[in-house]
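Archive transcription. Copying these from loose printouts into the bound notebook so they stop getting lost. Printout 1 of 2:
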Amino acid sequence: MSLVNAAPSPEHPETCTGATTADAAAPTAQRGEIAVALPMRHAGVRTTALRYELQGPAGAPVVFLAGGISAHRHASASAAFAEAGWANALVAAGRALDPARHRILAFDYVGADGKLDAPIDTSDQADAIALLLDALEIDRLRAFVGYSYGAMVGLQFAARHPSRLQRLVAVSGAHKPHPYASAWRALQRRAVALGQLQCADAQGLALARQFAMLSYRTPEEFGERFDSVPEIVNGRVRCAAEDYLDAAGAQYVARTPVTAYLRLSESIDLHRIDPAAVAVPVNVVAVEGDRLVPLADSVALVEALHGRGQLRVLRSPYGHDAFLKETDRIDLILAAVLGDTGAQP
């Protein structure tokens, strides 16, 4: 692994700080882009840009935050970047991930811009993070907090770069994908391929996202939200959930390149790691009823960590998406973990 351009490059002047002269102690936020030569497991050495955002006071402990394949570097709103982030309810004042007490680092996944049309392994993402830490002169993370795909990347990082990490929190992610979940994703990718054959890429991607929403949530939630009589519209029957699914598909298409979706979806299915290779403490959070990461897989992961893992189980009608919806409960878990300074790797 090597840096092509080791100096972080701010994208525009206003990215450098969120503080004002009236509040010099306010947490700062900055964005940058670093070009790296990344040796990839299945694609050789590729030059790629790592786009990151770092929020918090200089000198504070650093927590790396990574979400699902739709997550990105903008985790939460700040004075410098006021738009809501994907983890806005978790990275906020008074939360365990308070940017006044921690430096919160996140990045755009390798391949997220759709420019890399090659197989991407979770180990590639982990190595890219190590290169990013080198460029930012960050020796060691206080914690890596990963959700879904981010939990898989976190496990790879813990195995490949243990000296860079004190503790891992892996929420709704395991050491390998479940075959049932892989089958769901395979059908989603076929929906995209069918759309491409019809010169309807957006429609194919929207359909794939709609399939995905059914796997992320639970029958219990749909039963509560959409238990109404279907309507007949233009001579066709339309069920209550279709407006929700249409909106989810349209929102996803608006922000996601097709190639990025396909390659990151594949990356989930390529993921494999030997838990015995993980040498740092791991807090595993599982959701009872998660159809993509069954509780049994999380139990197997903790057992294979041989004393380095602890398991916390949540019950939620939101299934795999619980980490985005059950923010108060997730925050309590993070507070307990980040407040525990006794456990050292």
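Printout 2 of 2:
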Amino acid sequence: MFGIKKTAIVTDEKKIDDVLSRGVEEVIERERLKTKLKSGKQLRIKLGIDPTSPNIHLGRAIPLLKLRDFQELGHKIVLIIGDFTAVIGDTSDKDSERPMLTEEQVKKNMKDYIDQAGKVIDINKCETHHNNDWLGKLSYKEICQQADAFSLSDFIARENIKRRLDGGKRISLRELMYPLMQGYDSVAIKADVEIGGTDQRFNLLAGRELQRHYKQEPQDIITNPLIDGLDGRKMSSSWGNTINLLDSATDVYGKTMSLRDDLVIKYFTLVTRVSSDAIAQYKTALDSGTNPKEIKMKLAYEIVKLYFSEDEAKKAEEAFENTFKKGEVPEDIMEITAQHGSSIRNLLVQSKLISSNSDWRRLVEGNGVSVVGTEEIITDQSIKVEKDVVLRIGKKRFVKISIK
């Protein structure tokens, strides 16, 4: 009879310290968790992602990479797709009430989530769940018993909630329920550790309280820093300032090249696994006056290599050099066929080359759309297709629009 081969658990202290420090803002409780990791026992490491948009962006890849770090140490990683919690809505990072989504919207959004996560973690060795499987079955009585573990003052002490209260903004009772739901996820899968952004701290702690309520050992917590997006604000699908895992390799490379220079080292640390020694050398080079573009190209290459492949990284680098160093338009630009008189804004939104009408407005107002060849700047928000045209969108994107 064949035995089941157990996964080898890595207990090397240096590797454990690296996992508990790189891309980590806070560990609760650090020494206890470190002791567990050194013991050789396999732990259950949890991350939940709500499919509030169709895309997993690099900001969300930060905790996914931390999952992968634990996976490489031999621990069982557990990915929860929050199909129930996404409907309800988390306002941890919001200054206004997040509207509820429909079940249909959530189902559509999460269609490719597992495949996207698979760009970062080994899905075949990952335990995956949808939290509707247990949250959708809770009774009113059970929810009230869970709510009894928290006070109203606990909730309103949160910084963004206090700010909204002070500003006279509405806070729905629904918003009070979200931490209970995320916390119960930890109970349902018996998490030893939960990973999440700094904006999730209250929700992560709620998991510890509910585990105590259900007589489980409270999970340890790892929070990761949040990352700025293309416009300098926190990377968020709501703002369209994201680098998405569903973007093409060329777009990921180009978007990375448009980042502010001061974000390069942070991106190396948080969204790549380039060695700490190499990152220190890049920082020294930047501090010594090396052209930031040179280091940024290394960053763009490493990001594409990690989330796609080295071959795709080489192609994306060549496309960038052809476009921006030699003044050429890449051969594989997106092509759209349209009726004469079609709205260019609508075509670009529908093709997902830009994220929204507001993204188009921002680009046009910032002189970010031009006609390739004549270099004419588009200033008319309502411009329509009058002839075949190739447009440059921002610094890195091109589109060819042809009339049917």
